[in-house]
Specification:
The protein is mostly helical. 62% of the residues lie in helices and 0% in strands.
């Protein structure tokens, strides 16, 4: 059984947040909403662990996408995705 990786800190944490936001944006551009939602949630969880100074090191375009633009589509006020769709061909 593999040992879990130690938690990220400092510059490696900032790089990982940026990477996850970029991956989420690429899923967004590809119209893969389920994957985008999952990656965005992981990025947001890491982003929320950053200090104010560390958040300022994230490029502004990534911060804006994560906090505002994607909130419009994935926020709590939206209808949650359905788990399994059944096509009604009859």
């Amino acid at each position: 059984m593999a040992k879990p990786d130690p938690p990220l800190t400092g510059d490696s944490l900032i790089k990982e947040v940026c990477r996850r936001i970029r991956v989420a944006r690429s899923y967004w551009d590809a119209h893969n909403n389920a994957a985008c939602r999952g990656e965005r949630d992981r990025a947001l969880a890491l982003y929320n662990t950053l200090t104010k100074e560390q958040k300022q090191q994230i490029p502004q375009a990534l911060r804006v996408w994560l906090r505002y633009r994607s909130e419009k589509y994935f926020g709590e006020h939206r209808t949650p995705p359905k788990s399994a769709r059944k096509s009604s061909k009859g």
